[in-house]
Sequence to fold (144 residues):
Amino acid sequence: MPYHPHHQPNPSRCLLFASVASTDHPKRPSEASAEQAIEVLTRSSLEVELAAKEREIAQLVEDVQRLQASLTKLRENSASQISQLEQQLSAKNSTLKVRAPGAPGAGGGPHAHTWPRKEPGLGTGGLAPHRHPELFSGALRPPA
Fold:
C-alpha cells in the first residue's frame, strides 16, 4: 500500500505483522487469526475504557465549572451582605453618636446593664458592666 499523508495505519494489522515478524518460526493461519482476534478485542476494550474516561473527564470539567460559578456567586453575595451589614452598623453608630452623653441610655447612666460573667479581679460570679451598654439601652424602654 503506498504512503498517503492522511492515511491512518491499522494498528491491528501493524501489531499482527510485528508479532509474526518477531517470531523465529512462522505461525499457522489459525494461530495468527486467533492472535489477531485477541489484539482486536484488547484494542476494542481499551477504546471502550478510553471513551469512558473521556466522558468522566468531561463530567468532572462541567462539575468544576459549576463549582467555580457557585463560588463566584457566593463571594458576590457575601460581599453584598457584608456591605449591607457595614451600612447598618454605620447608621446605628451615627444614631448613637447623636445622643447626648448624659441622656438616658447613652451609656453608664441609671440603666447601664450588667450580667454575671467572669472578670479578672471579680471572682467567678461578679457583675460587670457591659462594654457597650448603648447597644442594649433601647431594649428596656420604647424609642423616643
